[in-house]
Amino acid sequence: MELRKLLERTDYRCLQGSVDVEVKNVVNDSRKVEEGSLFFCIRGAVTDGHKFVPDVVAKGAKVLIVEEPVETPEDVTVVQVEDSRYAMALISAAYFGYPAEEMRIIGITGTKGKTTTTYMVKSILESAGYKVGLIGTIEIIIGDETIPAEHTTPESYTIQEYFRRMADAGCQIVVMEVSSQGLMLHRTAGIPFEIGIFTNIEPDHIGPAEHASFEDYIECKSRLFRQCRLGIVNADDVHLDAILKGHTCEIESFGLSKEADIHAEDLQLVSRPGYLGIAYRAICAGASRSGEPAEFDVEIDIPGKFSVYNSLTAIAICRHFNVAVGDIQKALKTAKVKGRVEMVKVSDEFTLMIDYAHNAMALESLLTTLREYHPHRLVCLFGCGGNRSKLRRYEMGEVSGRLADLTIITSDNPRYEKPEDIIADIITGIEKTDGKYVKITDRKEAIAYAIRHGEPGDIVVLAGKGHEDYQEIEGKHYPMDERVLIKEILEGR
Q1: Are residues 103 and 226 in the same domain?
Q2: DSSP codes joined into one string, 85-138
Q3: Cα angle value 99/104/106 (rounded, 5°)
Q4: Positions of the chain with pLDDT lower than 70, given as ranges
Q5: pLDDT digit string, tens, across residues 333-365
Q6: Which of 334, 366, 381 is the last residue of a domain?
Q7: Phi first, then psi: what are they for 105, rounded to 5°?
C-alpha cells in the first residue's frame, strides 16, 4: 500500500524521503521487520523503539514513524509525528481498510462488569439474529473461532486486524472491553464507537506502571465519551460527573435510581441448592421501540446486585438494535461467562461456583454479595499469585477471614515463589480475624476437600483462577482448568 494512503488521517511531517513509496507491511515489533516494512518507533515503559532504528533498517525497513529525528540511510523515509502510538492506531486502521466503519462498534469501560456485560450483550444480539464479534479479557471471538486474550484491550494494530477478520466473516456488530490502559495508550484511537458504556469506577490500577492517580484513571476512562456517538452510563456512580467531563456524545443512563432512563425495581434474590440468581422489573423511560413494552420482568442466573447493573447495561444497548423483549429475557436467563460467578453443579444440596476475584476489592465484593443469600456456610477457597505485592495476600486473607465461615488456603500461580511462602503471607492476614481456615497447598486436593465437606445450604467459592486453564510455576504454564479438576474429583480420579 502507498505510504501517502496510510497517512491520510494522520498529522505528520516527512523529514526524509517520499510519502509516495510502497509499504509491504506495518510493524511495531523489531523482530518482525522485513524488506519494505514500515516500523513504528514507540517509547514504552521499558524500552524506546527509536533505539532499534539501525537494527530495523538493516533488516529492510523502508519507512520509520518517529517522534524525533533519527539518522538513517537516504533511501529510508522518515515520518515524524507527535505520538507514535496514536499514529500507529490511525495507520493500522488505514492498512486494514478501516474495517470498523463496516460494522457497529460497542465499547464498554469501567472498573468492574466489563467482561460479563460484553457476553450478555453478545448473547442478546445473537438471539435476535445479529452476527457479533467480541474482544475482551478472556478471549476474542470471530465467528466460530476463539483466540485467547493477552490483554483486555489489545494493541491498536491487533485490534484493527481482528476488526478486518470480523468484517470479512460477516460480523455486523463488535462488542469490546475498553480498558483505561487501552485508552491511555491510544489503542482505541480512531475507532468510530457507535455506543460507549460506563459501568462503574473505583480506585484500581493505580501505580508506577499504570495510572499515577485516581484522577488520571478517571480521565483516561472519560476519553471514551469523546469518541462515541452515544454514551450509556451508570446513573448511580458517584464519579459520573467526572467521567462525563468534556463529553461530546448523547447520553442515556441506567441504574437503580428512578431518574435513570432504564432502571430496576422490585429486586428479589433467587436461591435454591445449586442455583443463585436475581430477578427484577425493568422500567424503560420514554417511548418504547418497535411497540415493545416499556416494563418487563427479568431473571438472571448470576447472583448479586452487580448482575442487575450489568444486565441493565445490556438491555439499554440492545434496545438500540430493536431487539424484542422476549429475546432479551431469554438471552439474559441463559447468559454465562466463564470464570465470572460461574456455577458448576456438584451437588443437589449446596452451591459451588468459580470466580476470577484475585484481589481484596473483588473478593470483598463477591463475598459480601453471596452473604446476602444467607448460606448455611460461606466457604472461600483461594490462593495468591507469586511475584506480586505481598500486601494483596494480607488483604485477601483478612477479607476472607472476616466474611467467609471457612477459608481454604491453597496455591494459585506461584510463579517463581514457593507456594508455602505465599500461603504463610495469606495466613498472616487471616489471623487478624477470627475466621476459621485450613491450609491445603495442592489446589486439586483443596477443591476435593471443599466438595467432600460441603454441607446442605453451603455456598462454596473457588476464587482467583476464573477462566484461566493453567497454573504458572517457574516460568512454565501447566494445564489446570478447575472445571476439569472438579470433573475428575466427582469421577473419583
Answers
A1: yes
A2: HHHHHHHHHHHTT-GGGGSEEEEEESSSSHHHHHHHHHHHHHHTT--EEEE-SS
A3: 110
A4: 203-212, 286-290
A5: 988 899 999 999 999 999 999 999 999 989 999
A6: 334
A7: -105, 130
